[in-house]
């Protein structure tokens, strides 16, 4: 039997080779993900004809139930690939509510080679079979040919669909992706190493069988010498993904290796070599290869989330990576820089979903400087309209719903969506904990904040929130120990200093509180003045407390004023300050039902009414 080949489709400058599963534009290979290629192949084979959505779904996802949005994402990726390789007359046309067709110039199609049964040898004259026997011979030959074709088709299908990776690595449930090192070391801002690591972390977070440490846990590992095994032990993971980048001319090569933490042995390694202009392909290749090596099986949804559509312009991707680099520094100046870079990425590619999600995060983070929940909400929703699988966008929506809108049920829905998409997303666990707190469920809040800490054990922000939840639960010594642990990891972390000072004041240890006040970073800042005002009030120095309050700008004064008033026994002034916070819709108002300092107001009808208007339920520490 002759070999069976599928037709080679040509349209314009494009060639589709089904057997090699490649799309060519002239002599250049156009990179397509497997299911995007399957979508193109069906459209190309029926060029000019309408292909229904049902046909495409059945062909591209056989025996799998998927949402129509998966097909829409494939079409979007295909259109982007064709647009980046322009060819007059080639386009994909959408027929509303029906399907799609490929519009392209008519070109030759190499004919399909049809398998033929071997000819039956001639029989000597006089020995010809009867008519019935001849029919039987022809039927048998036809059945044999059909059986061979079926077996060959089955074999080819199995070969194409089987995982093209090494057998899954057992025993790896939690991993950390270290910032990639540049060889030779980069001078100045080395955004690429941390940016690529952050992108790979985000993708791998969608694999439910893996726990992936977030980028924030890796900041201290970016510069200087490091030991991957020691880093893995500090991050409490089973394996560490380490790598290095070499750029030479227009090529970028990355060498990656997965190192087992208990043994120190290399469990997996691979090299990736791409055009420097296509860094997204590098991210794509690393993410898919690692996911296949680590996960015993990937669901269709997980595979799709690990493989994201690329931005249309490389400059947009570079701006996005730079934005993530600055975002992960977690300070105000860097957050402003990240915000401008995400805006640049969107200006370069108006359909870049991840850039919108990043912008929503920066707007939320800067709410104490620029309170603009409407823009944060709009950016997150835009991201989801482009890619409904972004956990970051759902978490950003949850943040806005909780702290700006005080819509607790809506916030909970968004956080659950984020964690369903990415169970390792520590920030979503962190913010979700406050949904339990505002409902008076301290046990639920503690459980959720500890999940956040399990996902990101070195995060100073999460560590402070763990201490806060312990404080609200009345476990004051445990809270103090947590604040001190954070300061050991990051001595200049302002929130930890502030909360430790507040805990020492509550305890009545004024000498230790004064010593802690001396070490406060950013002297003269609003939070430093607030802490010192409370310390003066607790020490009985009302004049100094008032002077320090006057130094605080009005929008940020009310929490300190309420605290100072309660220290001085002035309930009327404390309630008035809380009313000011309510008028400003300040997110800090969500804590008044849990803050032990407010216990003296619980029987005050004005405070009870305020709790009702905010919508929070006071906690019952006695139930823990």
Walk me through the structure:
- The chain has 624 residues and is of the alpha+beta class.
- The protein folds into six domains: 9-103, Arc Repressor Mutant, subunit A, CATH 1.10.10.10; 130-162; 174-308, Rossmann fold (3-Layer(aba) Sandwich), CATH 3.40.50; 311-422, Serine Threonine Protein Phosphatase 5, Tetratricopeptide repeat (Alpha Horseshoe); 427-521, Serine Threonine Protein Phosphatase 5, Tetratricopeptide repeat (Alpha Horseshoe), CATH 1.25.40; 522-615.
- Helix content is 53%, strand content 10%.
- The chain is built from 25 helices and 13 strands.
- It has helices at residues 34-45, 53-60, 68-83, 131-161, 191-204, 228-234, 279-294, 300-306, 314-327, 332-348, 353-365, 373-386, 391-404, 408-421, 426-438, 442-455, 460-472, 476-489, 494-507, 510-518, 526-538, 542-550, 554-567, 571-583, 605-614, and strands at 9-11, 14-17, 22-25, 28-30, 51-52, 91-95, 99-103, 174-177, 181-182, 211-212, 239-248, 251-260, 266-275.
- Strands 8, 9, 10, 11, 12 and 13 form a six-stranded mixed beta sheet that branches. A four-stranded antiparallel beta sheet has the order 1-2-3-4, covered by helices on one side. The chain has a three-stranded antiparallel beta sheet with strand order 5-7-6.
- A hairpin with a 2-residue loop joins β1 and β2 (14-17).
- The radius of gyration is 31 Å and the shape is elongated.
- The chain starts with 8 loop residues before the first strand and ends in a 10-residue tail after the last helix.
């Amino acid at each position: 039997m002759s070999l069976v080949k599928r037709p080679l489709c040509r349209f314009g400058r494009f060639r589709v080779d089904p057997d090699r599963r490649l799309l060519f534009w002239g002599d250049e290979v156009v990179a397509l993900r497997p299911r995007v290629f399957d979508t193109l192949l069906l459209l190309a084979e029926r060029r000019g004809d309408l292909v229904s959505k049902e046909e495409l779904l059945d062909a591209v996802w056989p025996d799998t139930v998927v949402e129509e949005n998966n097909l829409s994402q494939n079409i979007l990726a295909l259109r982007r690939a064709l647009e980046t390789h322009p060819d007059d007359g080639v386009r994909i046309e959408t027929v509303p509510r029906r399907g799609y067709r490929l519009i392209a110039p008519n070109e030759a199609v190499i004919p399909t080679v049809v398998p033929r049964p071997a000819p039956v040898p001639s029989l000597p004259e006089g020995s010809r079979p009867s008519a019935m026997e001849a029919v039987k011979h022809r039927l048998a030959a036809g059945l044999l040919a059909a059986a061979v074709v079926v077996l060959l088709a089955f074999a080819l299908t199995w070969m194409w669909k089987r995982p093209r990776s090494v057998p899954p690595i057992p025993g790896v449930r939690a991993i950390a992706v270290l910032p990639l090192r540049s060889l030779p070391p980069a001078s100045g801002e080395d955004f690429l190493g941390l940016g690529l690591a952050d992108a790979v972390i985000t993708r791998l977070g969608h694999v439910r069988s893996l726990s992936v440490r977030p980028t924030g846990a890796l900041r201290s590992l970016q510069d200087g010498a490091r030991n991957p095994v020691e880093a893995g032990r500090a991050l409490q993971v089973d394996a560490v993904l380490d790598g290095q980048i070499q750029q030479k001319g227009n090529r970028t090569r990355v060498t990656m290796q997965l190192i087992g933490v208990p043994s120190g042995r290399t469990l997996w390694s691979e090299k990736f070599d791409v055009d420097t202009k296509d860094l997204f392909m590098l991210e794509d290749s690393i993410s898919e290869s690692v996911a296949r090596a680590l996960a015993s099986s990937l669901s269709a949804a997980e595979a799709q989330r690990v493989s994201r559509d690329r931005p249309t312009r490389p400059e947009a991707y570079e701006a996005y990576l730079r934005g993530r680099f600055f975002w992960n520094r977690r300070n105000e100046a860097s957050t402003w820089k990240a915000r401008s870079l995400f805006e640049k990425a969107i200006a370069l590619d108006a359909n870049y979903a991840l850039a919108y999600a990043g912008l929503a995060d920066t707007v939320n983070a800067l709410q104490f400087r620029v309170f603009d929940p409407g823009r944060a909400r709009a950016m997150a929703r835009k991201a989801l309209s482009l890619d409904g699988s972004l956990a970051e966008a759902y978490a950003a929506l949850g943040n806005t719903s909780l702290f700006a809108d005080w819509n607790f049920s809506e916030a909970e829905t968004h956080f659950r969506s984020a964690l369903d998409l990415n169970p390792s997303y520590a920030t979503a666990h962190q913010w979700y904990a406050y949904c339990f707190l505002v409902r008076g469920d301290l046990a639920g809040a503690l459980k959720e904040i500890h999940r956040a800490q399990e996902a990101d054990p070195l995060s100073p922000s999460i560590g402070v929130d763990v201490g806060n939840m312990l404080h609200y639960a009345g476990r004051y010594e445990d809270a103090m120990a947590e604040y001190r642990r954070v300061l050991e990891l990051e001595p200049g972390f302002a929130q930890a200093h502030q909360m430790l000072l507040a805990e020492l004041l509550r305890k009545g240890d004024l000498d230790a509180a004064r010593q802690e006040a001396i070490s406060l970073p950013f002297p003269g800042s609003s939070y430093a003045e607030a802490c010192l005002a409370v310390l003066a009030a607790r020490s009985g120095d009302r004049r100094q407390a008032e002077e320090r309050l006057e130094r605080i700008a009005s929008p940020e004064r009310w929490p300190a004023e309420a605290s100072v008033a309660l220290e001085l026994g002035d309930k009327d002034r404390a309630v008035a300050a809380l009313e000011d916070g309510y008028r400003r819709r300040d997110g800090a108002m969500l804590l008044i039902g849990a803050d032990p300092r407010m216990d003296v107001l619980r029987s005050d009808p004005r405070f009870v009414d305020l709790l009702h208007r905010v919508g929070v339920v006071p906690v019952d520490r006695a139930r823990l």
